[in-house]
Specification:
Length: 200
């Protein structure tokens, strides 16, 4: 692959906030085989079948962009765990909670995975943070995020849940009273206790 072709491909990524589908590359008259070459060189990352991203993409900008197209959404689950530094897992999709029944047309960029909640399950632990860029986003706080990792442990993986709990217990700003309150509201108090009994 020559330098001109490489630059043309990278320009496509820049047009789409650091992401590109195989079809986007082909639409520019470029053979998609070059994507694998760029992956092997470490210039781009394969997120999933047909979707790639630049490794240096600014994740916080992606969070803001995702919420712009998902009104009333709240950053949750794996994305929140990653934001708080509670896991080494970096999910390829941005996890966003929305009210049950709300219809959303998902954007092509950035990739989003939706979680549907109702009532107290949607509102509990909701907070607003200001990013380094000055943008404000809605995200569940640490305690709610831990509760979700326990509630959905079979979906995200037991190992990830244990890692997050371990990091949370070791954190200086943990609030166990709030954690237990949320766990009661979200009906996972007994399960949470089983895990914390081992860690505390």
């Amino acid at each position: 692959m020559n330098l001109e072709t490489k630059n043309r491909i990278l320009y496509v990524f820049q047009e789409h906030s650091g992401y590109a589908w195989t079809k986007d590359i082909r639409a520019k008259g470029i053979h998609h085989k070059y994507l694998q070459e760029l992956v092997e060189e470490g210039i781009i990352i394969r997120i999933r079948h047909g979707l790639y991203s630049l490794p240096e993409i600014e994740s916080y900008n992606s969070l803001h962009e995702a919420l712009l197209v998902v009104p009333d959404g709240i950053i949750c689950m794996g994305t929140a765990l990653s934001y708080y530094g509670l896991t080494s897992w970096n999910p390829p999709d941005i996890h966003i909670a929305i009210p049950h029944g709300k219809k959303i047309v998902l954007p092509a960029y950035p990739p989003v995975k939706l979680y549907y909640f109702t009532g107290v399950f949607f509102e509990t632990g909701r907070t607003t943070i200001t990013l380094d860029s000055g943008q404000q986003i809605s995200i569940y706080d640490k305690e709610r995020t831990i509760c979700d990792s326990v509630r959905y442990r079979n979906k995200i993986g037991i190992d990830i849940t244990k890692e997050a709990l371990g990091e949370y217990v070791r954190s200086k700003d943990k609030n166990l009273n709030t954690l237990y309150d949320y766990a009661s509201r979200l009906r996972i108090r007994s399960v949470l206790n089983q895990y914390l009994d081992v860690l505390l």
